[in-house]
Amino acid sequence: MSVSVSPRLLATKTQRPKLPPRLVARPRVLAQLEGAAPRMLTLIKAAAGFGKTSLAIAWAEHLAARGHRIAWVSLDPEDDEPGQFLLYVAQALRGACPEIEGQALDLISEVALLRPFDVVRLLLNGLADLDDDVFLFLDDYHVLQSPEVAECAGYLVKHAPAQLHLVLTTRTEPNLPLVRLRAQGQLCELDATALRFDLEETAQFLAAEQLGPDAALTLHEKTEGWPVMMRIIAATSLQAGVEFAGYVRQLSVRNRPIRSHLADMLGGLPPEMVSFLTRCAVLEHLCAPLCAHVTGQPDATAIFETLISRQLLLTPLDADGVWFRLHPLLRGFLVQRLDQETPDTMAALHRRAYGWFAEAQLWTDAIRHAIAVGDTAEAARWVENCAMALLKRGELTTLFAWERTFGPELLRKQVKARLAIAWGMALAMRFDEAIARASRLEAELGSADAQARAALGCECQTIRAVALALSDHTDAALALAEDSLKQRSSGPWTTNTAANVAVIGWWKRAELERCYHVPWISFPGDDGARNVVATTYRLCLLGLVDDQQLHHQAATRQFGEAMRVASAHAGPLSAAAAQPACLLAQELYDQGRADEAEALLSPRLPLVNAVCMIECVIRAYTVLVRVNVARGAREAAERLLEGATQLALSRRWVRLEARLLHERARMALRAGLGEEAASFVARLQHLRATVQDRQSALVAEVQAELDQAGALAHQARGETTQAIALARSAKAQARAHRNRRRELEATALLAALQDGPEAEAALREALALAEGSGHVQLFLDLLPFAAASFAGQLKALAHKPEGTALAGFAHQIAARLPGERAAPPARAELSLSPRETDILQLLVSGQTNKAIARQLNVTPETIKTHIKRIFQKLNVTNRSQAVSRYYQNRLGG
């Protein structure tokens, strides 16, 4: 049926726009909107450039594909009067619902003769007779400021029939009865936090733009997932013709297109608001009282509230909505403008800021602002109050910078500050300096009372224990830590840090059960904020103990929680977050997700070098070297190996040196350089001889590297018997030291070296060990060194018609073999069962395992089993991939 258009109307405003090219699929956000579909009102609210319209178009297409009716109006300021607004709404509804085109819509075309509420009533009456759901999208609703239009929209919302669903994209909160709708469960709100690209979406964006994935994390951190800024950066880098990762690392507000966009955005604001924002830009985080004090503007609180309501790139920092921060690019732009236009004002603003922070006893911020204007004597007096707080958050760089700024004289009498710096030296792997500083502090105890001497002595002893543990002298460290734990005289930080050292000690002695029973002081309601560094260390260490036993889910849970704590309380690119990032990257690599692993590690490598314990450093460099070798980027791998070798030698980390020699031997063998590989094995043999008298755990680790590298070298020379003997020795040693991860590596190596039934038996054993954790990459990494039958054995197991998880896991590996496109395993149950389909749909809706279990009246463990099977059938490894696969299937992708 054709629909006529009033001469007053522009037809294109009621036509749903087409999706932009190369749009990033966002199943994560679409899943949230899917849950909103039954609700009356959905608000998609954020500042300009967050992809509100694109998301709305994608959702509208998704709804239309499911048979829902879609009405669309693209609003602009000319529609800010009731007649014009209602005409467009009526025209959009006419296009979506031709059967309501009777008398009501004919009267609406003569809207000047009717009151606005009468028009709304006619529209609602027409919609009430429909059976289908109708979604009315009003794009750019923020351009409508008229109270009369707001009244019409409010009336529409209040009296809408159940089948009408209103979707608004807006930069500001609309003047609608939102409180009532929230209370009734009829409102869904997506703000800038939900609309920001996450890391996976950032990587997809770079892939669509044909830019390197290694810059994903840096780009995400620089832009904080702001879509329009990501597009500007991608476009300007392509125009400049430079290497993208380096371009992003050097990115700043000096970039002309970024400056232009920010200036244009600010140009639409009232001058007093821009002035307020510019003065507040000296602050790293803001609240209304602080901004009022710093700017001196009497209406500061009102302006602050307006900025919040406008969603103007203010990120909330707490659940109460008290503290916020500006987007870093906007803040940098404003600071640059302030410094250029009124440099004298900058100093005055900093002094006002540090006065406010000092009065509020927020010492770290007070010191930062005092240093910014050169008031170092004032700042030095405050260091004693916050040095330990900095240490606990892992802000070691700030701590060391303060020491350089103030010098030894200003800090001489500040014992707490000096202790914090000594702790920091130990955690920054500056072992000798940490021990020397602790000894000097003990020597100065002198006139202190007995209790103070005991507390300080215990703390200095624990500093030494940390330095010994992190330098791989774990037996000596354990003795000191156990003694400190018995004293319990120096507070939770020292006790918990000693506990972490004890975990390392018992772990390296293979007394794994004792690791889980080391005492730990926790606080009710504390999620790690009090002590970020000690908490993340504990979680990472317990995760490593789990990982060694191939308790994959437990290890992943510990590493993920460590990353959450560090990211929430110190920042995702903080020193505290570097440790779990290395461990999560190893897991990603194990699962065959090399690009994601590299993206997680590359921007953090300087922090990995500076503050990460040896376990994390070994994993980080192993992953990065193997990724580059697999790509044929041997020079890049060589540079990584050289840098890591210097680190190993400077810290006397023998285990790291052994792993690097192993990796060098593998790389030489892949290049056909047998003699070069043999030289690296010989150096490993020499290294093994030098540690003969060291603790057994270290000797076992070096021996494992030697056995594996030696086995590969023998295999390359055709000396299969010797190779198998070394692999069997490695497996026996791994079992003796209760290291199932090493046992898995040795078993997979045996499968790769042998032929016939022995090879199949070893392969089945290795697959059984690896299946629970999805360690596909281990088998793929052995292909260049394996017997000719190894790939065939994998494919044969993948096609076994036995319907087992083992065959499914073998299929996952076989599907990744070079040049192969493996057929799916012969399993009748490959498609999802009805119960699995129900669980997948609940998973897509965002429900937790416990919530799904309650709804289906089963245990959470049963749900975990179902989800694991769903992941296998969909050939995915996590929830976000499952959601993405679900929408691809639903939308025909």
How is this structure best described in words?
Helix content is 66%, strand content 4%. It has 893 residues and is mainly alpha-helical. A 5-stranded parallel beta sheet has the order 2-3-4-1-5. α17 (328-341) crosses α18, α35 runs antiparallel to α36 and α45 (849-856) packs across α46 (860-874). The protein starts with 26 loop residues before the first helix and ends with a helix.
Topology:
Layout: H1 27-36, E1 41-45, H2 52-65, E2 69-74, H3 82-96, H4 103-108, H5 116-128, E3 134-139, H6 147-159, E4 164-170, H7 178-183, E5 187-190, H8 192-195, H9 199-208, H10 216-223, H11 227-240, H12 244-249, H13 256-267, H14 271-280, H15 288-295, H16 300-309, E6 314-316, E7 324-326, H17 328-341, H18 343-359, H19 363-372, H20 376-393, H21 396-411, H22 415-427, H23 431-443, H24 450-470, H25 474-487, H26 491-508, H27 512-515, H28 532-548, H29 552-569, H30 575-590, H31 594-601, H32 605-611, H33 614-630, H34 634-651, H35 654-670, H36 674-690, H37 696-716, H38 720-736, H39 740-753, H40 756-771, H41 776-782, H42 790-798, H43 805-814, H44 834-844, H45 849-856, H46 860-874, H47 879-890
Parallel strand pairs: 1-4, 1-5, 2-3, 3-4
Antiparallel strand pairs: 6-7
Helix pairs in contact: 3-5, 5-6, 9-10, 15-16, 15-18, 17-18, 18-19, 19-20, 20-21, 20-22, 21-22, 22-23, 22-24, 23-24, 24-25, 24-26, 25-26, 26-28, 28-29, 28-30, 29-30, 30-31, 30-32, 30-33, 31-33, 33-34, 33-35, 34-35, 35-36, 35-37, 36-37, 37-38, 38-39, 39-40, 40-42, 40-43, 42-43, 44-47, 45-46
